[in-house]
Amino acid sequence: TYAPKLVLLDISDINCIQDVAKEILNCYGCVDILINNASMKVKGAVQSISLELDKKIMDANYFGPVTLTKAILPNMISRRTGQIVLINSIQGKIGIPFRAAYAASKHAAVGFFDCLRAEMEEFDISVGTVNPTFICSYHRQPAPGNWEASIWK
Question: What is the pTM of this model?
């Protein structure tokens, strides 16, 4: 039995994920189940969302889970066991208006984890994606001109 340990991680900060994964592996020796369940979304017309914000959404929803998974994966492969789950979104399967960046990031994540599932079969590592329909998320109303406040976390 292991005592719980709180490890803070900003999944959109790709540069710190490797260090956090090392901290977790040093503390517990392995990860049996990795559940990727962080997300960020923004609502707006394609022409009104900056490329900078598109990149932030992609970092949180695609590169974050991919980076964390790649950091934990060698340990699972060496042990030939583990489970990886991506909690994604129905928008990873279908796009809807005013959610282009979000849907694109979720489509990319589904594609990556579908490929990973096939590759990990030989190592007895289970990879799954869950694509729930719309979820009520925490949201802050943005001040005029403050795009960062329009992000849903």
Answer: 0.84
